[in-house]
Amino acid sequence: METFRQCQGLQNIIGAIDRTHIPIILPANDEWNSYANRKGWRSIVFQCIVDGHGNFCNVYGGLPGSVHDICVFRKSQIGQDLINGVARFPPNCLLIGNLGYSSRLPILVPERSPQDEEGAHFNNIHSSTM
């Protein structure tokens, strides 16, 4: 938590969450289309949470590449626990994530369309932290 604050001044951030794609080789037929990600190549998705030092704290994955961030999150144990109010980290603490995640969860996401300089500044800090 201290590292995020030292780095960008963000308080109460205990980890960064995102997903990553691992390329896979599959037969070229319709049966495997769900593994094609938005860039068109086939992959398996992993959701990872890292702490302020870049250490992996939580990894969940194995889903087809077409699955969106929030869907991976909802299927993961940590996602289910947070959605159901079963805290897995200290009170008032947040993860930092991209717009693929919901701001209704304990995940700090950037503003979708900042309307002022303050919002743009926040998004700049947010993106440099991710």
Secondary-structure topology with pairs:
Layout (H helix, E strand, L loop, with lengths): L1 H7 L4 E11 L19 E8 L5 E9 L4 H7 L1 H7 L10 E3 L10 E2 L8 H13 L1
Parallel strand pairs: 1-4, 4-5
Antiparallel strand pairs: 1-2, 2-3
Helix pairs in contact: 2-3
Protein name: DDE Tnp4 domain-containing protein
Keywords: Metal-binding
Cofactor: a divalent metal cation
Tell me what the structure shows.
With 130 residues, the chain is an alpha/beta fold. It contains 4 helices and 5 strands. It has one domain. Helix 2 crosses helix 3. The model has no long low-confidence stretch (mean pLDDT 85).
In short:
With 130 residues, this protein is an alpha/beta fold. It is 26% helix and 25% strand.
Q: Tally of extended strands?
A: 5
Termini separation (Å)?
14 Å
Strand content: 25-35%
Coarse shape: globular
The helix tally amounts to 4
- What's the structural domain tally? 1
Protein name: DDE Tnp4 domain-containing protein
Pfam family, one: DDE_Tnp_4
GO molecular function: metal ion binding
Organism: Austropuccinia psidii MF-1
Features:
five-stranded mixed beta sheet, globular, DDE Tnp4 domain-containing protein, HARBI1_dom, alpha/beta, 130 residues, metal ion binding, 4 helices, metal-binding, 26% helix
